[in-house]
Specification:
heterodimer, A: alpha/beta, eight-stranded mixed beta sheet, four-stranded antiparallel beta sheet, B: Rossmann fold, 2 domains, 15 helices, disordered N terminus
């Protein structure tokens, strides 16, 4: 990302709290799940921004807010320099053309009663881009080809295809309107190992070919590392560390990032058997009742009394590497620009 | 066979070698030398609308007492069906075990009637499934579910079973076990539910635990906790463990021996170190090359296996991996390659293994 260009997506102090209600007749709000609690990120044009974290950390909620599928509790999201909350109906429609999504389970995100032609052609129809069937079919065939699917699949239904083929159809649909930004929410997580690599490669090729920007949400750290330029690590609704990909994986600072990396076994018995378990103790707390101070302190090996009192802010270690932990990162020399 | 002595029930807190159970003794000398589990030429078929599917096709492998064996493969490779067959849980119809033998401690489980298998399933062979929420009953308390098997299999009274359940929950690292016994599955997190499942699996002091994708539904940090726990407990209690997984990292860390399955067959098997050092089947090589790795440079290219897994109703002739294989020759379409040794304790079902081993750097 070059510093001069405005980012395509800017998220500023985003909060999304879901009310928790109780009672059936006299329903009342008894609390809130703070799914996202003060997140700021900027995603540059042509960048693949990785977002990792465990279930319930709020990574999908951020994606949904950027797509305008959720209304934030507070904070702003700017797309191409404009606040997406200010869009009127016409502008929202134009915005929806420019942002698309690929979800985890292609079987549940594709309508089982529609053929591939209808699935991939529907966005074109909705946005009035190709009004005749023959023109649409031509575009659909071209899109299938770009996504590595044979054109003869146009009259197939989702259940007649393999998981990898279905995910390619989902990607073809996302590409149909020539978007600028694609949210990939666990886009390869449900696929078999051998197919996952094919889809990762396809996503990389498409980004280069069409100048796409991705928000790549995942829990598989090795896949996120492979595909992303920059990565943010989330824990309980907050970003705890953010850096360019190489820095984050080679010099992780936050104790949670280190714990995540230590938990991933690599496919080499010699390496694995020599490596200590490096376990992080305890479970992920409920986002309804997050711990006071630093949300990671109950599981953190470095935590002391001060961590229970104040919530640490993200601190810049230089070169865009920021970490929300006062106990780490002091040994890093800040490069002189 | 089912009565258990007092000293044995209290053995959970200390080390307990497998021989202590004394079950092997009355089976004679042969069973002591034989593997604990010996699957021999297993064929499992399912009748489907599109034709008969051979989900498991001539699969053989064994598991020694106290060792950890992995079965690796992608969806549809037959790894889970193999496990279900061992437990006598293949629904018939549409499924049936068409041929083969599953010898457990010298006895062929396929010759047992439903009563006979029930004495083994949950007692001497226990199972841990992927999704603890669906394998636990949501309307019964944890205590009720944990004590059920012990009362049924071990003839424990309510108090005795409850005391043991408390002990087991402590063993799997659950705090306040007495309170947990009164709770229901939805009160627990995914990681804790899987700990409960492990405690339940160990409750009747099994000789073998089969874990089918035990941590796939769990978060990364919790996954590591659960796997370390399972390995440590099995080693300590002398329980053999079969881990069924698609994750090559998990296999590398935990398994002593590995079986790689593709389209219903074991295509490569061997000692974990040897298999990872010199993978000798094109499918295994392909799998290892298609996962990005944290221990390799970030920009190392991914080399996916081309194509898709075959349609189980219409498998290609000869080797099922042939259409996706860079090493395939005419011969591969003519007959199915049998498993053969390329190193001591390392077998592959590939005609071109020598060429592969020459061309793929170790």
């Amino acid at each position: 990302m070059t510093a001069s260009a405005t980012p395509l997506v800017e998220v500023e102090d985003l909060r999304k709290h879901f009310p928790v209600t109780s009672g059936v007749v006299f329903e009342h709000v008894t609390g809130a799940v703070k799914a996202v609690d003060g997140v700021s990120v900027a995603i540059g044009r042509g960048e693949t921004f990785g977002l990792v974290g465990e279930s319930g950390c709020g990574k999908s909620t951020i994606g949904r807010c950027i797509l305008k599928l959720e209304t934030p509790t507070s904070g702003t999201i700017r797309f191409d320099g404009r606040d997406i909350a200010d869009f009127d109906r016409r502008e929202t429609l134009a915005f929806r053309r420019r942002v698309q999504a690929v979800f985890q389970d292609p079987f549940s995100s594709l309508n089982p009663r529609m053929t591939v032609e209808e699935i991939v052609g529907e966005p074109l129809l909705v946005h009035g881009q190709e009004t005749t069937r023959s023109a649409r079919l031509k575009r659909v065939r071209a899109l299938l080809d770009v996504c590595g699917l044979p054109a003869r699949l146009v009259d197939r239904y989702p259940h007649e295809m393999s998981g990898g083929q279905r995910q390619r159809v989902g990607i073809a649909r996302a590409l149909a309107l020539r978007p600028d930004f694609i949210l990939c929410d666990e886009a390869v997580s449900a696929l078999d190992v051998s197919i996952q690599a094919q889809i990762v490669r396809l996503l990389e090729d498409l980004r280069a070919e069409f100048g796409l920007t991705y928000l790549f949400i995942g829990h598989d750290l090795s896949v996120v590392r492979h595909i992303s330029h920059r990565v943010a690590v989330m824990y309980l609704g907050r970003i705890v560390e953010i850096a360019d990909c190489a820095t984050l994986f080679e010099r992780p600072q936050h104790p949670y990032t280190r714990a995540l990396l230590a938990a991933v076994p690599v496919p080499d018995p010699e390496v694995e058997r020599a490596r200590p378990a490096g376990l992080v103790k305890g479970e992920i707390p409920s986002p309804m009742t997050p711990p006071p101070g630093c949300v990671f302190h109950p599981r953190c090996p470095l935590a002391d009394e001060s961590c229970r009192r104040a919530e640490p802010a993200l601190r810049d270690l230089g070169g865009g590497h920021r970490v929300a932990c006062p106990k780490v990162g002091h040994d890093i020399a800040v490069p002189v620009p | 066979m089912i009565t258990v002595s007092r000293s044995e029930t209290n053995g959970f807190s200390g080390p307990s070698p497998p021989e202590q159970t004394g079950r092997a003794g009355d089976q004679g000398e042969a069973s002591v030398l034989a593997a604990l589990l010996d699957i021999d030429g297993l064929v499992v078929e399912f009748a489907t609308g599109a034709g008969v599917v051979r989900a498991v096709n001539d699969v053989s492998f064994d598991v020694e007492r106290g060792e950890i064996v992995a079965v690796v493969g992608e969806s549809g490779s037959g790894k889970s069906v193999t496990a279900l067959a061992v437990l006598g849980l293949i629904d018939a119809p549409p499924g049936r075990v068409a041929s083969g033998a599953i010898r457990f401690d010298g006895e062929d489980l396929l010759t047992l009637d439903e009563d006979g298998i029930r004495h083994i399933r949950g007692r001497r062979i226990a199972m841990v499934f992927q999704e603890p929420m669906t394998s636990l009953n949501p309307v019964l308390s944890i205590g009720r579910q944990m004590t059920e098997a012990m009362r049924l299999h071990l003839g424990f009274g309510a108090q005795e079973a409850r005391a043991r359940a408390v002990e087991l929950l402590g063993l799997v690292g659950i705090s306040e076990p007495e309170r947990r016994l009164r709770q229901y599955p939805h009160h627990l997190s995914g990681g804790m539910r899987q700990r409960v499942m492990i405690a339940m699996a160990l409750s009747c002091k099994p000789e073998l635990v089969i874990a089918d994708e035990p941590t796939t539904a769990l978060d990364v940090t919790i996954q590591a906790q659960i796997l370390e726990l399972m390995r440590d407990l099995c080693r300590r209690l002398g329980v053999a463990l079969v881990i069924i997984t698609h994750n090559l990292g998990i296999v590398a860390r935990y398994a002593d021996r590995v079986n790689v399955m593709y389209a219903g067959r074991v295509v490569e098997k061997g000692d974990a170190r040897s298999l990872y050092r010199r993978p000798s089947h094109p499918y295994t090589v392909g799998l290892l090359n298609s996962v990005p790795r944290l221990d390799r440079p970030r920009d190392a290219a991914l080399d996916p296996i081309p194509g898709n897994p075959p349609d189980p109703v219409a498998l290609p002739s000869g080797c099922a991996f042939r259409p996706r294989c860079a090493f395939a020759t005419a011969r591969c379409g003519e007959s199915v390659p049998a498993l053969r040794a390329v190193e001591p304790a390392h077998l592959t079902a590939c005609f071109e293994a020598e060429r592969l081993r020459e061309e793929v750097p170790a």
